[in-house]
């Protein structure tokens, strides 16, 4: 097992559009190991989701666990949102934008089709926090961050705040 470094805003690599995972790749030990390392990194952070883009792997997969007890790991490969309905506002955070939280409006309920870690096709209809998290992670795969939903002025304030925090940490 290994902890993976997480890219942070405004790193331009976070803007990369990820490409689909090949179905033959899923069974490879290196890919399965990467999934385990992503869970370890996510749980340690701690976070409720981690997209491959955040660890500088620009392929379409992510890991999630929104359960209280951290015992419901979900691997989502090549996700497609088939249906969206309603709206919800949630105060989001992101491991790539540490210490920043802001309200984002997203669909309340989504139907998502994806491959699981065995390469089997699954379809789920989800709402609430899990729906928020899946939409947040798919945004990462498309090079999008939750701060992109804020005004340019607020995003610039976020960038400066992070730069200042890094300077003080150095
Ligand atoms: O840990 C995380 N918490 C969170 C809270 C509200 C909305 C989305 C998230 S995802 C985030 C982890 C992360 O950055 N995933 O990309
Ligand atoms: Ni994030």
SSE ordering: HEEEEEEEHH
The share of residues in helices is: 25-40%
Mean of residue pLDDT values: 98
| CATH topology heading | Peptide Deformylase
User: Any idea what the radius of gyration is?
Assistant: 16 Å
Report the uncertain regions: none
Which cofactors or ions or other ligands sit in this model?
Answer: ligand GNR, nickel (II) ion
Please, what is the CATH homologous superfamily? Peptide deformylase
> What number of domains?
1
Q: How many E-type strands?
A: 7
The order of strands across the largest sheet is 1-2-3-6-7
CATH class: Alpha Beta
Strand content: 25-35%
In the CATH hierarchy, the architecture is Alpha-Beta Complex
Secondary-structure-derived class: alpha+beta
Shape descriptor reads: globular
**Largest sheet at a glance?**
5 strands, antiparallel
**What's the total helix number?**
3
Termini, distance in Å?
28 Å
Q: What topology emerges from the helices and strands here?
A:
Blueprint lengths: L28 H16 L4 E3 L9 E4 L9 E12 L2 E5 L9 E5 L2 E7 L5 E7 H14 L10 H18 L1
Antiparallel strand pairs: 1-2, 2-3, 3-6, 4-5, 6-7
The protein binds ligand GNR and nickel (II) ion (NI).
């Amino acid at each position: 097992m290994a902890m993976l470094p997480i890219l942070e805003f405004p790193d331009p690599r976070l803007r990369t559009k990820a490409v689909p995972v090949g179905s033959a790749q899923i069974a490879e030990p290196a890919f399965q190991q990467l999934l385990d390392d992503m869970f370890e990194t996510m749980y340690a952070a701690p976070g409720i989701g981690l997209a491959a883009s955040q660890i500088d792997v620009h392929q379409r997969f992510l890991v999630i666990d929104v359960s209280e007890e951290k015992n419901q790991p979900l691997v989502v490969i090549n996700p497609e949102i088939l249906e969206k309905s309603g709206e919800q506002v949630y105060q989001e955070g992101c491991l790539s934008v540490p210490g920043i939280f802001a309200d984002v409006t997203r669909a309340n309920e989504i139907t998502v089709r994806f491959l699981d870690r065995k390469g089997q096709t699954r379809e789920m209809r989800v709402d609430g926090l899990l729906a928020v998290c899946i939409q947040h992670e798919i945004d990462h795969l498309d090079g999008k961050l939750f701060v992109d939903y804020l005004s340019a002025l607020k995003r610039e304030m976020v960038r400066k705040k992070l730069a200042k925090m890094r300077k003080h940490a150095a």
